[in-house]
Amino acid sequence: MFPRAFVLLLLVAFNAGSPLGRDDERFHEELVVRPLSGDHVNTYFQFTTRWHYGEKDNLYHTQLTPRVIAELLQQFAVKELHIGLTQGLWRYETWGYPIVEATSGAEMWAWFSGFNLTNDEVDRQWKELANVFSGVLCASLNFVDNTNSIAPRHLIRPQFMPANGRKFVRYSTLPREIVCTENLTPWKKLLPCGSASGFASLLNSGHVHNTKYHSLGLKVRVLCEDHDEDNCIVELTQTANLVYDLRLFELSNNDFSLRRLFGMGLNGFCELAQSSKIYVQRNEQGERFQLVPAPMHEVKSTRGGHTVVYSVYDMHEQFKDAGERLFNVAWLSPKSENRRRNLAKPVMPPVTVHRYLLGHGQERGRIVTEVTNSHYDALPIMVQEVIPWYVHAYLHTLSIRRKPHRLNEYGRQRLPFKLLHYTPGKQRELPSHLEIGFMLPGQTSALITIDVDYLLLKWLEYPPDANHGHYIGAAIVSSQLPMGRNYTALPAEGHLFEHSFNATRPSYVLSLHTEALIVSLPTPDFSMPYNVICLACTVVALAFGPIHSVATKMIIVGRQTSAPKNFVKKIFCKIFRRGKAAEGAGETEGAPTSGATEFASTRAAARPAGGPSGDQPLLEDLDEEEEEQD
Amino acid sequence: MFIKFVVILVLLLGSCRADAEAEDTSVLPEGFVDASQRSTHTNNWAVLVDASRFWFNYRHVANVLSIYRSVKRLGIPDSQIILMIADDMACNARNPRPGQVYNNANQHINVYGDDVEVDYRGYEVTVENFVRLLTGRTQNGTARSKKLLSDAGSNVLIYLTGHGGDGFLKFQDSEEITSQELADGIQQMWEKKRYNELFFMVDTCQAASLYEKFTSPNVLAVASSLVGEDSLSHHVDPSIGVYMIDRYTYYALEFLEKVQPFSKRTIGEFLQVCPKRVCISTVGVRKDLYRRDPHKVPITDFFGAIRPTRVSTDRINVTLANEDDFIQVDKDELVARKPFKIVMESQFPSDLFK
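Output (structure tokens, whole complex):
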């Protein structure tokens, strides 16, 4: 224990002494601030470490890249890994498209490639990989296994793959996962500067978790020279995407600043970073704000016929001679803002998606995915559904119906499938996996429906909060846009946000996530066995007591005497009779038991005579009977 | 005799690197130095468990986070704390203060803090996982941070909170661990040399029933209530509508907040932290398995961590290899790598739509 601690401490010191900023390893930090419609502000942090490590042996000497990532590449045949931890729902209609896509809860997918790699081996590695990151990110990713993972066929594609070797992919979501400080803390620890300096110092839990939407992302990819595994680059991209609702700040006007959003100003840049820049979007919703201090540069980016203007603050220049001051940017809105606050309507993005459940009861239902194309031209659409094993889907009920925008209801008109891939699920083993491709005409919505049955689970398969419901993960909808309006994602070959500037391409691949669904499976009343035991015991006790006493006790028939009317005489009479009854009991005890039937019959005869007045005890030892019930 | 021998051995072994340490301890009073020298542990671990789910059990999460905060403040690193929390309170939709959990309606201490690592959370908090964790029989592929990697020199603190009864503690309202299972788990830990001394703390109703079956040596146990008694919560916060924290842990935290890493406070004082007039329940203590006098054991033996450090301004070669080799390697690495062109794959199967 001791020596290890020593070595660690000293290695850090040793490294700090050696010349930093090796030419083959670079770290960049970027912050993008985009005012959105409806008084929302999107802040997007991206931390990129790119290491041209060459051959695999060099992975033992890490500097900026975290050790766990380097070890990952030694241990597993993983070439690309994406993990997202998200809370909240991205509103495409009003906010446009995010820079990085994510679904609520945890999402993870990875590409594996290597020689002699088999399917079973990939399954094993995939499960171990999930376990590693469940420890690294403090998330329950260890619940990822074959029962909730699929191997996507068409929709999820590798960004880069070496030409040789077989390729495998695994994808899984855990929609129930909660994202909180315990995920943010280890996520920040993967950064070269930690949360001590640089943009990561802005990510304080109190100001991250009061957002409407927050998403942590981690992406690792390995890029190698063709046919050469000895000349490789590993890229680690950590992203944090937040959406603040300015109305929650209870401001009199619409002004905001970095300090207001994050609780503090920026204390400088990470000394290990090659570049450290803030980009502020100035057109669309950002147009109405005046920036203080004035930005240093302005960048105009034209992408797919759509122009975006960004103001740039370079932290390296800002803190060149400023001393210890905290850096803050304020967005000031004009005084007449309140009047025209709602005038700037958001631009409807070309494709939007929704998903919901139909049907009632806990037996069967229908999953509906709605894709809307508001572009004038037809768009290719692909949908990937993962239906968990506790929901049975019926493929023959799958249909795509269309609705032009001018109509109010879906008609019977169906859209033809261009692609249909279905892997049936298996109870307790595999989820159902469905991929659909179709052309969606312009100004039209498509309604994809499939009927499902809900399964009755086994006793121990219910989670502790069974009545909360069970989740069906989000569907992914992918499309290819001909124009770049609203599109902000990084191009596949780029690794910095600035690589999306002027990145005009023939088409832009869009990937959207729908809402996750929650179904209430038939859930038994878990307190039922307890209730049944209580009830059964009561019934048994109630029945057993009288039967037992009837079967074992003797009945003494007393003499019928007329009760005296005088109160004093009544008491006297009672005392006198009690003495007699005791004598009688002594007598019967001495007598041989002459059969229960006889006594029973005498009892039956005696009861009406005794009457409800009960002036004479017909049965003795009433106490004994009560004890049985306990 | 044996203990003396061990102490001498430890001193001998440690003398080569304990110069700075000796200076520090010299300022401490005599009695304390004696006690700490008699302590035979080399490292500290903590297993902190909140076994109950649902928002109305906010107080149990606050309980466990109070202890987490204290042990972390007193020096046990996150890598040696196993924190199990069955539900998320900090980011719960019902929490009006997202990312924060308080021990007090006046919001004195944010026990959740800004730097927290939860190792087992939500559905992972099960009796099976807890017993596997204690006995070291975790499943293949379990992450390192989810394992109790303690050894024969470890002082282990186990803290449990939740809803309990006579002889059991409920996990997530769906299963329970019995006192016998707990005692067996600890016995197995002892047999496998997984602890040196163990401090068992439990805050639940009828808590004393949980340590009754213990037979393993070097175990000191404290419980918030005796058998037949309920442990009570401290106070309610009307702004969130639930009880904030349990009485016993509230006073334990109050005590621990005053403890500093080199404090002279002892475990004996800690055991008297909640007298009956404030706790309402009677705090139960079991000392018969523990050989040392709790009044001579510093509280940092269980709530703090030994981390011998030495500040050096010189360059020290710790790998015992020839240093020049490494300088050579560094130079080699500076050779610029050959840049290459990366060809990206298409991100959309356009050919399917032709």
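Chain B has three domains: 1-38, 41-303, 323-353.
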